[in-house]
Amino acid sequence: MVDILKSERKQIIIEKINADHFVTLDTLVDLLDTSESTVRRDLDELSTEKKLRRVHGGAEKYQSLQEELSNLQKSIKNVHDKESIARFSQTLIDEGDVIFVDAGTTNELLIREIAKDGVTVVTNSIHHAAKLVEKNIKTLIIGGFVKQSTDASIGHLAVEQLSKLNFDKAFIGANGVDADHITTPDIEEAVIKQMVVENAKKTYVLADASKIGHISFVKITSIDKIELVTNARDHELLEKIKEKTRVYEV
After folding, report:
1. CB under 8 A, 24+ apart: contacts of 184-187
2. CA angle 129-101-104, nearest 5°?
3. Cα 78 from Cα 241, distance rounded (Å)
4. In the beta sheet, which residues pair with residue 99?
5. Phi, psi of 230 (to 5 degrees)
6. Architecture of the domain spanning 6-61
7. Number of Cα atoms under 13 Å in the Cβ half of residue 184
8. Does 6-61 match 71-249 in CATH topology?
9. Which one of 120, 177, 196, 223 is separated from 42 by 20 to 30 angstroms, measured CA to CA?
10. pLDDT confidence of 234, banded at 50, 70, 90?
11. Buried b (16+ CB within 10 A) or exposed e, 32-42
12. In this structure, what are the phi and psi dihedrals at residue 164, rounded to the nearest 5 degrees?
């Protein structure tokens, strides 16, 4: 094992996270050729210094209120956790439901799991719509300007179409979940999500542990307007969230 000074280890960690936006604990152990406990201490210190954000299984780049990863970048983060959330979320769907499925990587995994008969799915994602059609699921796609980084239809046309629709259930994503609100970096995406929450009998926010405690630029809605599906079993914020809404810990 090569003996690397703490300052050198921390610099290597920062450079890796800046390049990849997210890095696992195992990757850093191999990269630094050091123990897991040493890496954890380094990550904790860097988190305290606001140079990265600790998440389940590793760390991610410290994001500003408006910073947002692309779907490609998100797709390699916390994959197993997102799969668990998606598998559970499909149990919340009943036969004959009309549901809205938001753009996003966890919701993409939910689409793979939908198996109930007679379900109609409304989505604002071109890629989601294509996968739904392949599964012979009745699908309605919301039009509008497509935001390339997240594959979400946004803008006036999307809002106008959504204003005319009602849903039994909605499954949406959020970049941040705190004790009071769910948030996202983009104002126009926030408007779409707000419309969906207003028009759904019940809204589920699918959020892996990395989203809990994070705050983004725009408030989508208050926490009591949604129900939360997450793998963040032991997060200190969950007890506060549970005082205001239902939380499914998967």
Report:
1. 184/68, 184/216, 184/217, 184/218, 184/220, 185/65, 185/66, 185/67, 185/68, 185/216, 185/217, 185/218, 186/66, 186/68, 186/147, 186/150, 186/154, 186/217, 186/218, 187/217, 187/218
2. 85
3. 22
4. 121, 169
5. -150, 160
6. Orthogonal Bundle (1.10)
7. 22
8. no
9. 177
10. confident
11. bebeeeebeeb
12. -95, 0
Q: What is the C-alpha to C-alpha distance for residues 210 and 203, in angstroms, rounded to an integer?
A: 20
Q: Which two tokens stand for residue 184?
A: 């996202």
**What span, in angstroms and rounded, lies between the C-alpha atoms of 62 and 67?**
9
CATH 3.30.9.10 correct for 71-249 = no
Q: Domain boundaries in the chain? A: 6-61, 71-249
pTM of the model: 0.76
115-126 average pLDDT score: 96
Alpha carbon distance, N-terminus to C-terminus of the chain = 38
Q: Report the 10 Å Cβ neighbour count for 184.
A: 24
- 131-143 mean pLDDT: 97
What DSSP letter does each residue of 158-209 carry, written as one string? HHHHHTT--EEEEEE--SEE-SSEEEES-HHHHHHHHHHHHHEEEEEEE--G
Please tell me what DSSP assigns to residue 154.
E
Other Cβ atoms less than 10 A from the Cβ of 45: the count is 14
Contact 110, 171 (CB under 8 A): yes
